[in-house]
Each structure stands twice: as structure tokens, then as C-alpha cells.
Amino acid sequence: MIDLDCSPEVVGIISYLKRSGVPYRITDTIRPGAEPSYHAYGLACDVTYLRPTVDSEELASIFRVFEAVEGHLAELIYAGPQVSYNIKNGKRVPKYSQALHHNHVHVAVRRGVLLDTQDQAPAPESNEHAQEEEADQDMAEPVDAMCSPEGGVWVVTKDGGVRAYRGAIFHGSYWDLPPEMRQGERTFVSIEERDDGAKGYMIRSNGGELYRFPV
After folding, report:
1. N- or C-end of the chain: fewer Cβ atoms within 10 A?
2. Fold held by 8-133
3. For the chain, what is the largest distance between any 2 Cα atoms, rounded to a whole number of angstroms?
4. DSSP 188-212
5. Contacts of 87 (CB under 8 A, 6+ apart)
6. Domain map (residue ranges) of the chain
7. What is the model's pTM?
């Protein structure tokens, strides 16, 4: 069963694994104080086979499950001889941190990346071009996410857009506000529960302004 106390990003990793059909067991998720580490921020999972195993084909199968979404990963680490590369920031790189990753596969994503909403990542040869396009469209960068109390996940982007996933109810976003409330240059730093107890969410801007939805 998925631990609902996990971050939306970790829930997405686990849901993606479950959908793949590969046998697996989660051995580690959030690890407070493990900085600098994606575990410390609740953005990583350590995955092993159903029984303890080292440098095995079962672990390699778990690693290969993520090939389809490798462009969305912050890290994918496994040291076994069955693989010739790891993933760092969406790109294939030489294997690293090998001493610690013979008995499990480490998977991490950046905040706001939900693997179970991704069908296929860009092919490795086109990934660099995709990242350049993403840099040109910086205002669409995901910056925070939260679970909806009614189920599903909300993700807020830097420009104030909100995306609703896995059945979460969409209540609107910054761009739905009247023009007089949208003046100036704003980016957004978080999405959080409303402070008035109402259903929905709040977006907090870099200037400290709070926008409540539904309005």
C-alpha cells in the first residue's frame, strides 16, 4: 500500500513502479537530516527486490523500468554489472556512488515531478534540446506540490499555473485572477492549505502575497 504521508513526488515514483508490474520493495523514502540528499526533502526512493539481493538481474529489471522516463529523473543509481550508466538531471552519465548501490536502486525526482503522470520521457539524444526549450520557458517550471484532501495532487508552477493530477479538483490559478490583481512581476514559491479552513488551496508568491482558490 502507498503511504499517504509520503510526498506527492514519492507517491508518483511508487505508483509508477506499481503500474510497471515489476516485483519490488521500497526500503527507504524520506530521511530527515540526510542533507545534501533528495531523501532529506522527500523526493527519493530506494527500491530493492522482494528478497535481499546484490548485483542481480532483478535489480537491473527495476532500473530498466525507469528508462522510459529517464528524462524526468533527478537521479537513477544502480552499481550492478548489468547496466553501463546512471542518470543525473535527466541525462545518462557514467556510474557513480557505486559503493552504496549494489543492493538497491536509488530513484529521485525534482520537486513537482510526478512520474505516474508521465507516459514517456524524451529520447536521450533529444533530451538536451528539450532542456534548452524548458530553459527558454522558465516561467512554466514546477516549484511545489501538495496532496488534495479529497485525493490526487496539485502542482504549482513558477508562473502561478496550477495543474491537477490523479483526480484532484482544479479550483483555478493565478491567471484566472482579474487583471488589476495580476500587476507586476511575480513568481510563486509554494502551494499550501488555505488559512481560512475552506476547501481548495493557496498559492504564495515570492513577495508574500497569498492567492486563495476557489476565489
Report:
1. N
2. Muramoyl-pentapeptide Carboxypeptidase; domain 2 (3.30.1380)
3. 60
4. EEEEE--TTS-SSEEEEETTS-EEE
5. 66, 70, 73, 75, 76, 77, 93
6. 8-133, 138-213
7. 0.59
**Cell of residue 189, nine digits:** 514559491
In the chain, the amino acid numbered 81 is P
Residue 34 C-beta-side C-alpha neighbours within 13 Å: 13
Give 93-149 pLDDT, tens digit per residue. Answer: 999 888 889 999 999 998 888 887 764 433 334 333 333 333 333 334 667 778 788
Copy the grid coordinates of residue 167.
483526480
| Structure-block grid coordinates of residue 65 | 523500468
Element (H, E) at 105: strand 105-108
SS3 164: strand
- Which grid coordinates are listed for 15? 505508483
